[in-house]
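Dear support,

I submitted the protein below through the web form. The confirmation email said the job was done, but the results page showed an empty box. After a refresh the structure appeared. I'm attaching both so you can tell me whether what I see now is the final result or a partial one.
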Amino acid sequence: MPGQPRGRSTLNGSSQASACDICGRYCKIQWVNSSSRKAEDNVTLEDRLFGRFSRSSLGLITLLGIGSVAYSVAIEPRILRLRQFRTGIPGLPAELDGLRVAFLSDFHVAGPGRGASLTQQAIEIVAQERPDLVLLGGDYFDKGRWDDSSKVFDGLTAFSNVIGVLGNHDQKGGKHVAERVRQGMARRGAVILQNSAISVRVRDCDVTIAGVDDPYTNHDDLEQTLRGNPWPLILLAHAPVIETSLEPGMAGLVLSGHTHGGQIRLSPAKTLTPLDSTFYLDRLVGRRISKYQRGFHWVNGNLLYVSNGIGTTRLPIRFMAPPEVTIFHLSKNAPHPDQACDAAARYVEDIG
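What the results page shows now:
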């Protein structure tokens, strides 16, 4: 340009261009660095949030696990429930309408847990309810370790009609152990049935109670049990595996225990699932397995009830299977006649 030195103009222009180039590169670097830091900040925030969530979830799961274990050890095994059902029995004589039957099972005295104290508590509850019959489902002492000096079952002498069967634990050690248990219970006023039946007088009626020896250990003989007793009002069988031998309408009511309601279970179902501890235990020992684990079932024209029992075995733990005393109020009429004839719900009403 006129009046301006070329060199200076060139120098200034060159310096300006160089400064712009440097500034552009610097801005780009700053923008890249800023974007990288933001991305890093975002990743870090996500990582932090996920880490906090993971730690919180792990903490919650740990607390739930500890709480569940504490509950299953210290609380549920001590909660003895009294369960009462109005139970329809087709063909029940009118004189027996309203007959009250108490059922206790799986005491496991001297086993892990509170079997002895719960058994005494259960007998006290039954005494207060004053049923017409007291029936027992077996497994009196854990692993068959009968102690005749124990006073746990002495309260049974207060009842006029006490009838029971033997369980698999009563068979541990052989026939002499089973006989020792039978005689010990007889001294406490209980008649123990071993593939036999008995007729007792209740409300001016003859009532037949049949009982098979333990089916879980293959001591049962249903044909012998029912010989001369074609339709017992109640059939006792320690384990519900008796289901495979039941013929249509064989008994008014079939009572079993053995499963402890699963003892440790996560399944809400009444039948066996992989969420039941017994699903695996019975397979490990190669024993017969029943799909009926707890509550009422209609099995080949027979109403079956499987009790949670009272004591515990192997571990002093119960989860979703609290111990129970059960009283059945027998009725000649079905409480829910609108239900299907082959549905257990037709014949049962929970009354507390």
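Response: this is the final, complete result; the empty box was a page-load delay. The first helix runs from residue 6 to 75.
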